[in-house]
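Ligand: pyridoxal-5'-phosphate. Inputs:
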Amino acid sequence: MIRENIAAVETFIKEASEKRQSDMTEKVKLVAVTKNHTVSEIREAIDAGTAFIGENRIQEASEKYQQLGNTVEWHLIGHLQTNKAKQAVKIFDLIESVDSIKIAEAINKEAAKIDKVQDILVQVNLVKEQSKNGVYMEDLPALLLDIDSLEKLRLRGLMFIAPNVENLEEVRPMFNSMYKLFRKVQKMEFLNADIKYLSMGMTHDYKIAIEEGANIVRVGTAIFGPRQY
Ligand SMILES: *Cc1c(COP(=O)(O)O)cnc(C)c1O
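Predicted complex:
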C-alpha cells in the first residue's frame, strides 16, 4: 500500500504544481512524515522512491537513524529544545522548526563542534495560534538577520503549519500570505542565507499549499495511513 500511496500523492503533487499561478518554479519535494511509524515501513517508502523523511521527536529519530543512516535526507519538523540540539545536528539535513534566536544559537554552537553547516528553516506562526510554535510575522525580519549572522547556520527558507479549520478554503489565503512573505524574504540582503524553500501543506491541505506556492510538503497519513498513538 505504501508504494501505491506515494505514487498517488506524487500524482496529486504534479497536478497541483501545474495549477499554481505563482512564479514558483522550484520542484516540489515530498517529505514523507514517518513519526510513529516503524523502520520497516520507512524502508518500504524508501524502496518506493522516498528521498526525504520527516520526524518530530529527537529520541525517535535517533533510534531510526541508527538503523537507516544517511540513505535519505532527514528533516526535523517538530519543536526543538536547546538540550537536544547536539543530537539534532548529528541527524538532520534540514531543521525546519527554528523559531527563536535561543534555539538558533544552540544549533549553531553544536554545528560548530562537528564542523557542519546546518541548513534550517524558520517556522512562522502567521495567525498567532497560542497552541503553535513559530515566530510572529512582525518579529520575523529581525530573527532572520540574527540567524544570518551565525556562521554555522544556513537559512534556507520558511515553514508554516496551517490551523485546523473545517472549511479547507479558509487556509488558502494563509498559504498565499506565506508565499508573499517568502518572496519578501528572498529579496532581503543576507550574508550566508540561500532562501529556496517554502515548507507548507500536510495530508489534508498539501494540494492547496502547492497551488499557493509551497515547494516542500510534509505528508504522513496519506502515505502510511493513520498513526497509532
Ligand atoms: C505530523 C506532521 C505532519 C504530517 O501530518 P499528516 O496529516 O499525517 O500528513 C506534517 N507536518 C508536521 C509539522 C507534523 O507534525
